[in-house]
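Query structure, 123 tokens:
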């Protein structure tokens, strides 16, 4: 199962570049990424297959791991309405989505308040 890590970085021009370079040098692939800067704090979500190895590199690079959670990763068809169909099925199951972003290879990453029920809604 894929794991989403919530990372806090200092808002500086080379922060993300340094982190990604360190992960790459350690042979750790970033499967998905999204981020935002608010009030001088950079908050990022990074998707990994091996989160334990990634945490070590992230923390040694000076970033902070604020959270770690399992997420759904769904292969998505590249067409209008595809995200709406997936999220609609999850909503119809009474599940609240609290994290969503696109990852490499047109995959949709979803965090939810009830991951097993969200997964079951998509089968």
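Result returned for the query:
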């Amino acid at each position: 199962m894929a794991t989403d890590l919530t990372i806090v970085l200092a808002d500086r021009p080379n922060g993300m570049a340094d982190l990604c370079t360190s992960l790459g040098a350690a042979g750790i692939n970033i499967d998905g990424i999204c981020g935002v800067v608010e009030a001088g704090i950079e908050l990022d979500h990074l998707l990994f297959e091996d989160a334990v190895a990634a945490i070590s590199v992230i923390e040694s690079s000076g970033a902070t791991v604020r959270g770690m959670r399992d997420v759904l990763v769904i292969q998505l068809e590249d067409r209008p309405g595809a995200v709406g169909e997936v999220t609609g099925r999850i909503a119809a199951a009474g599940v609240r989505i609290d994290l969503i972003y696109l990852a490499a290879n047109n995959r949709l990453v979803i965090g939810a308040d009830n991951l097993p029920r969200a997964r079951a809604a998509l089968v």
